[in-house]
Each structure stands twice: as structure tokens, then as C-alpha cells.
Design brief:
By secondary structure, the chain is low in regular secondary structure. The chain has one domain. The chain has no helix or strand. The radius of gyration is 13 Å and the shape is globular. The two termini are 22 Å apart.
């Protein structure tokens, strides 16, 4: 519900060699109920173009 809120998952995004090459990344998250705001916090060493973010989804 905020960028400083509860951490649901952490995962490493691999370098793929270009913006036309992608990799699916998954992580386990605990089950929640209700409506929440979701924040993605991205950290890395690159000053620009750290990653391309195409989509996300939840599944059981």
C-alpha cells in the first residue's frame, strides 16, 4: 500500500542482452485479501535503462 509497505517478493531480473530479448521471472507471494495498492521498487547499478517492464500477473 506504499513503497515502504510490506514486502511481498524479491527477485533478480537477469540481463538478456537487449530490449528485444525477454525473460519471464516468477516469485512466490503470500495470499492476501482485499484491495491494495501495489508498488514495484526496482534497484540496480545501471544509471539508465535498468530494465524493460512489459507486464505482470498473479496466478494460482
Amino acid at each position: 500500500d506504499s513503497k515502504n509497505g510490506k514486502l511481498l517478493a524479491t527477485f533478480d531480473v537477469p540481463l538478456t542482452g537487449g530490449n528485444d530479448r525477454w525473460k519471464l521471472v516468477t516469485a512466490e507471494v503470500e495470499e492476501l485479501t482485499g484491495v491494495h495498492d501495489l508498488f514495484f521498487v526496482v534497484k540496480g547499478k545501471a544509471p539508465t535503462q535498468l530494465m524493460y517492464f512489459d507486464y505482470w500477473m498473479f496466478s494460482k
